[in-house]
Amino acid sequence: MPKTIFLAGATGAIGRRLVPQLLETGYTVFGTTRSADKARDLDAIGVRPVVVDVFDAEGLKRAVVAAKPDVVIHQLTDLPPAVDPSRAAEFAARNARIRRDGTANLVRAAIAAGAERIVAQSIAWAYVPHDEPCDEFVPLDLKAPEPRIISVSGVAALETAVLGDPTTITGIVLRYGHLYGPATGADQPDASLAVHVDAAARAAFLAVEVGSGGIYNIAEPGSKVNSTKAHRELGWTPDFRI
Between the CA atoms of 127, 100, 167 and 120, what dihedral angle is there, to the nearest 10 degrees? Predict the structure, then answer.
């Protein structure tokens, strides 16, 4: 039976690479944006645009309930293509707010809409210092100093919200390595922890249908993390390209 997807962050780096995969498979896709111009772009490629701000809890809830999605995908971030190092703390705080408050609103909306599962973007560089490669059982670095703790606490809030009530909705968290490829601001992979944006999008696509609730590392081999669980349970491979 065809599924309906509510994709929050449809015009972001991963969202742009994920949308074609979903549409080609026959899914009905509702995609969010805050821009009327980007809404027209989404409509032109077959996505049903939803102009909404994730911080508008009631507006977001109405939009998700109206879409009646089977699956909600969270690919929202609040980062520019290139971060000025002098403003890194500012951007980290904005992104942490998306992960904390935006995720909470989106999870509540997904539950209200009766969605079966929610798939959310996280990061694979928030682990406590540990023998590498880290698997998903290694705890987050919740005692990190400033400014790292800003990002780690945002990640912790996102993951807690998504995984909080597995009896109500199946939550899947994808901990991505550093993105590279189109629209990411990086043409080449980070030598220590990387994933191509197409492969990152593929992990979200696979998680729509398969995978038990929980956390999955999504990164290329030889990195600081172990992605064996994603290979085994999602059937994910890091060499996927559109």
Answer: -70
Residue 181 DSSP code: B
User: In the chain, where does DSSP find H-type helix?
Assistant: 13-25, 36-44, 57-67, 88-97, 103-112, 148-163, 197-207, 228-229
Please answer whether residues 139 and 128 qualify as being in contact, where contact means their C-beta atoms are separated by less than 8 angstroms.
yes
**pLDDT digit string (tens) for 132-179?**
999 999 999 999 999 999 999 999 999 999 999 899 999 999 999 999
Which two three-digit tokens encode residue 230? 């994603």
Specify whether the CB–CB gap between 91 and 83 falls below 8 A. Answer: yes
For 117-174, give the DSSP string.
EEEEEEESS-BPS-SSSB-TTSPB-TTPPTTHHHHHHHHHHHHHHHHS-TTTSEEEEE
Q: What distance in Å separates the CA atoms of residue 121 and residue 216, rounded to the nearest whole number?
A: 10
Give 232's contacts (C-beta < 8 A, 6+ positions apart): none
For residue 224, count other CB atoms closer than 10 A to its CB.
Answer: 18
Grouping H, G, I as helix, E, B as strand and the rest as coil, residue 49 is: strand
pLDDT digits (tens, 9 = 90+) for 69-117: 999 999 999 876 555 666 667 888 999 999 999 999 999 999 999 999 9
How far is the C-alpha of 235 from the C-alpha of 159, rounded, in Å?
22
Query: Distance between CA atoms of 81 and 58, rounded to whole angstroms?
Result: 29
54-67 burial code (b ≥16 CB/10 A, e <16): beebebbbbbbbeb
